[in-house]
Amino acid sequence: MNGAGETPAGSVAQVLLERSFDTESLHDLRQEIRRRLVSAGVAADATENFVFAINEGLINAIMHGGGGGDLTLLKTDDRVVATVEDHRPTAPFELPTHLPPATSMGGRGLWLVYRSCDEVRLEAGERGLRLILELRVPVG
Questions:
Q1: Domains plus CATH for the chain?
Q2: What SS3 state is found at 126?
Q3: What integer pLDDT is reported at residue 90 of this predicted model?
Q4: CA–CA gap between residue 23 and residue 27 (Å, rounded)
Q5: Which of 50, 86, 112, 114 could form a disulfide linkage to 69, CB 3.0–4.6 angstroms apart?
Q6: 10-residue mean pLDDT series, the chain (140 residues)
Q7: Angle subtended at Cα 131 by Cα 74 and Cα 16, rounded to the nearest 5 degrees
């Protein structure tokens, strides 16, 4: 893309970052995400919460989605959208909207993601499962 993309609602978005990732690049990518969000004017607390949520998606893609994936970070007038797509085709599933029981082996990371973002959804991507995270940001 040339610095702009189309969002599902049809509004033009600025591409903040497009990057492939794996275990080796995870640390540097988190730092780059943080820098891009701050440069785009996202408040410090919102940046940290969103970096946390994106990181959970990145880790899930590495652990359960073939060892890596692709990240796209977009900004529109009123939101930031992160898309994490892994490299292993998997059917979308229900995100946990309640804290999983203590006896559950997983699900807490995605539950925290659900609680950290304004919108979270899963869909089938071109190569694998796509996690889409949205954060509303104040206009101005």
A1: 4-136 (3.30.565.10)
A2: coil
A3: 74
A4: 8
A5: 86
A6: 46 92 97 96 94 95 91 95 90 70 71 89 88 86
A7: 15
- Three-state SS for 3? coil
Q: 77: closest CA among 131, 19, 9?
A: 9
Residues 85, 130 contacting (CB under 8 angstroms): yes
What is the per-residue pLDDT for 4? 42
Please work out, in degrees rounded to the nearest 5, the angle formed at the alpha carbon of residue 126 by the alpha carbons of 6 and 4. 20
Check residue 2 and give its pLDDT.
34
pTM value?
0.84
> Distance (Å, rounded) from C-alpha 37 to C-alpha 85?
19
Rounded distance between C-alpha atoms, residue 50 and residue 11, angstroms = 21
Rounded distance between C-alpha atoms, residue 128 and residue 108, angstroms: 21
pLDDT, position 88? 84
Q: Residue 78 is which amino acid?
A: D
- Round to whole Å and give the CA distance between 19 and 50: 17
